[in-house]
Amino acid sequence: MALLKRIGGTPSNDTPSAGTGVAAPPTPPASSQPPRAHADVQAAAPAQPGATDVSDQRMLELSLWIVDRIQGSLGTQSDLKRTPESERMLQERFANYLRQSGVSLSEAQARRLYEMVMDELFGFGPLEPLLRDDSITEVMVNGPRLVYIEQNGKITLTPIRFANDEHVLKVIDRIIRPLGRRIDRKWPMVDARLPDGSRVNAVIPPCAIDGPSITIRKFAKKKLTVEDLIRFGSITPEMAEFLRACVVSRLNIIVSGGTGSGKTTLLNVLSNFIPEDERIVTIEDSAELKLAQEHVVRLESKPPEVDGTGRVTINDLVINSLRMRPERIVIGECRGGETMAMLQAMNTGHDGSLSTLHANTPRDAIARMETMAMMAGMDMPVHVIREQIASAVDLIVQQTRLEDGQRKVAYITEVQGMEGDVVVLQDIFMLHILGKTPEGKLITELRPTGTRPRFSSRLEAHGFKLPPHIFGAQIPGQNKRW
Ligand SMILES: Nc1ncnc2c1ncn2[C@@H]1O[C@H](COP(=O)(O)OP(=O)(O)O)[C@@H](O)[C@H]1O
Ligand SMILES: [Mg+2]
Q1: Which secondary structure element, helix H or strand E, spans residue 239, and what is its range?
Q2: Is the CB of residue 430 below 6 angstroms from any atom belonging to ligand 1?
Q3: Is the distance from the beta carbon of residue 407 to the nearest atom of ligand 1 less than 6 Å?
């Protein structure tokens, strides 16, 4: 319970093994009494549909009570692995403690309770069922009583509850301890990863006011392919064909979008268009990209050591990658100083680089790059920075998550150059919102704007003779396709 001690939130508890503040009632014979529902949890649990009813709450209390006892009984074996032998032993102890509790459960309830106990002992407690469900893409814990998920692009509240703040802290501790990371009152935030690659952020009090918060971006076991994106209607086959031509023809491309809009997914799809014989260096905060090519060097930034030294940033890695004879540099996301390094790489012969950044429109993406370059301490007038951007970036692909959860490419926009002080943008494809079904699903259409990009000749030089209809041109004697 090192974490709880560090945070200073350990509840008064005389049971040496109890780490969640949920112990049997203190009056003797304590261990033979069933745990009562935690008054404070009950009082605060919102009375809304789907919320935990008392019996769910009792199951949770009971599971933690048994976990405490099992952990107490394990002594030095506390880092037990899940094997058939250990499971047999735990089953026995579970049955014993369940009997001791005096609570009688149906067989199905007992089985569920056993799973809850195992999830506490070997997994991430109440989060385990959510982590196992591949259809859930994000898990958000706002303190012990509000656990939200994202599923099919929609965010919903779940009936999942933690017993109290300490219970959430215990799960955070279990996530970060194997990684040698720490979180405490002095530095109450941490980024970490689950063993399966899912990204985790945790913030605890005093910064998290309403209790410890956890955000988990689930690692998609199966990456979406270009065919998936076409099937979902995120892009059209014509857009996909165009984007493939742009990647192969070594255009510098930025995928822009909000958090969770699908930037990394699209970057992955685009990166997979890179020809097999080109040497690729990927640079990410946490390796999410999954490239099919063989000749790939994957680099990952690293947080500082406990003493604060030894941090390696994306910027450091971009600069380093230039010495690695890359033919393609793929940067997971530009958030700061690395933007300047990336623009310089793009402008100094490393054509065909790809990255993402957080912005809401292509125009906004240009503004973001400008700000990030300036924040990186570039001692240049704004219009020089703008010129760097305009000459480095060829194409911006805007990814959007619509209000109904659909993820779409909203714009494919060419960066044409500078006119005076302004970066000139030309949309090539655009998303149109046509209406809404009675169920609230948006009716949309992705259309070319009718403008052929100025860089068409570069595509042609690489053997892509894209037919005019891709760009929406009308063929004489034929109805307009769109
Ligand atoms: N076009 C799409 N259609 C449906 N789901 C998508 C699409 N693009 C991404 N996703 C899903 O959305 C989630 C967030 O995607 P991700 O690419 O990580 O977003 P970002 O990098 O913008 O934060 C993932 O679970 C991913 O599988
Ligand atoms: Mg991302």
Answers
A1: helix 237-248
A2: no
A3: yes
